[in-house]
């Protein structure tokens, strides 16, 4: 940065970095969440499906049985899309953090924004695919609801989108010569009505005024010379 140039930095990029960090945290919690779909005696996550069997006796506690969900194609596809989105978000966070620390912010803003928008597309595809395939392949005998794990996935996607938009905004405005600027002298005041005259007439008026002032100066000098001669003769 030169001496005569300075940049005004606004905190939008720090807010964008915070959004990316929150999106990454929410995405990790959503991936590890045990409750994406819940019902009475039933719980479904990205990794396993658990159901609670009925107790044979009142004094006996009902047991939960779980099995892996990675045997279904659509659940594997959902998990792969979410993991890919999380990886893209992690890369965007690292690039943004390094560029902000080194002071090369504008050089990598576009890369960070592209990574975040890619993560948004991957996350949205996974979050739309999951409920469609779940409802299509499950006989709903009881009331099911999409729980907080699924909601955190959408929350992470929203923060990714907000961070990508903020990284696209140009918030560094250059100001060339703002620090060393020479003050300028205002132009002389013109008499009223002079600005309304054409250029040629204004020049002639200026010449006449100059001649008039020159004539007055000559007359004054002649008078002084005459008084000087009179004093000498006396």
From TrEMBL:
It is found in: Cell junction, Adherens junction; Membrane. GO terms for cellular component: adherens junction; membrane. Keywords: Cell junction, Membrane, Transmembrane, Transmembrane helix. It comes from the Eukaryota. One of its GO terms (biological process) is cell-cell adhesion. The chain crosses the membrane at residues 74-100, 112-132, 152-169. It is a multi-pass membrane protein. Belongs to the TMEM47 family. This is Transmembrane protein 47. It comes from Etheostoma spectabile.
